[in-house]
């Protein structure tokens, strides 16, 4: 059951990504963007913040 749930989450995330690409909601992946994402993740982990992606919900 857990594996099936994880697969559903992954498929939902892929669908969200594909829709965003089709709608032109993209940005170039640069070193600066990568560094920003890493720093945001580190900051949130240090603060204990729980991040929930409401765009992707298992069906």
Outline of the structure:
With 59 residues, the protein is mainly α. The chain is 64% helix and 0% strand.
Can you count the helices? 2
Shape: flat
Radius of gyration: 14 Å
β-sheet strand percentage = under 5%
Q: Runs with pLDDT <50, length 5+?
A: none
Query: What number is the mean pLDDT?
Result: 87
Name the structural class.
mainly alpha
- Amino-to-carboxy terminus distance: 13 Å
The total of beta strands comes to: 0
Proportion of helical residues: 55-70%
- Largest β sheet strand count, sense and barrel closure: none
**The number of domains:** 1
Give the SSE string.
HH
Explained architecture:
- With 59 residues, the chain is an all-alpha fold.
- The chain has one domain (2-47).
- It is built from 2 helices and no strands.
- The longest helix is centred in the N-terminal third of the chain and has 21 residues, at 2-22.
- It is flat.
- The mean pLDDT is 87.
Give structural attributes.
single chain; 59 residues; mainly alpha; 2 helices; 64% helix; flat
SSE order and pairing:
Elements: H1 2-22, H2 31-47
